[in-house]
Amino acid sequence: DAGVTQSPTHLIKTRGQHVTLRCSPISGHKSVSWYQQVLGQGPQFIFQYYEKEERGRGNFPDRFSARQFPNYSSELNVNALLLGDSALYLCASSLWTGLEQPQHFGDGTRLSIL
Amino acid sequence: TQLLEQSPQFLSIQEGENLTVYCNSSSVFSSLQWYRQEPGEGPVLLVTVVTGGEVKKLKRLTFQFGDARKDSSLHITAAQPGDTGLYLCAGAPRGTSYGKLTFGQGTILTVHP
Fold first, then answer.
1. Could you report the per-residue pLDDT of A18-76, keeping only the tens digit for each?
2. CB crowding B82-111: b at 16 or more within 10 Å, else e
3. Alpha-carbon gap: B103 to the closest alpha carbon of chain A (Å)
4. Which residues on chain A are in Cβ contact (under 8 Å) with B101?
5. Which residue, A24, A25, A59, B62, shows the most beta carbons closer than 10 Å to its own?
6. Which residue has the higher pLDDT, B30 or B38?
7. CA-wise closest residue to B44 among B76, B15, B83, B2
8. 8 Å CB contact between A110 and A7
């Protein structure tokens, strides 16, 4: 079975631009979460979506938004990019939102802001 | 201030040595998870510990959850170069209603042949 797939794998943008990152969960998984991982640190929670509804939001500005589609895939959008948004963006899927649910991570999108 | 503090941040050892990585918090966690992440890849779940005092073994890796469910440790016996990677602990503080994981800052382990 295919794991969590993310696209693109790498992306270079300039300050002020916007970006859309995409995630396809493992088949049968209905929950998708997004994390930001800055070099040298652990991932930080951005959003969780379940059944197309936002179920949780981390401490990120409104420039960050996301949505989940009927096929459970998800997009993360970031507007007005800042240098500090340079990071690895990880998507994780799980069957549902429960804390006991193991989360399966994709290999991430490496976003570089110039 | 990190909700989950990992120590040490860096560990460089020779093949065959033993090591322990610690994950501490002042908060009580419903469960804690340990992940390993290799360069260019996403974190891979190693284990979830749920019960205070629980010990789980995965080949040469031993995971322990503190009695008060505020801390955890990962012990590796006879480390091998293939164990090299970033080790992350993660969990959700008790009372969290959805699957938001809080991660420690990670321990970078390098095992030299």
1. 999 999 999 999 999 999 999 888 999 999 999 999 998 999 999 999 999 999 999 99
2. ebbbbbbbbbbbeeeebbbbbbbbbbbbeb
3. 6
4. 33, 35, 43, 45, 103
5. A25
6. B38
7. B83
8. no
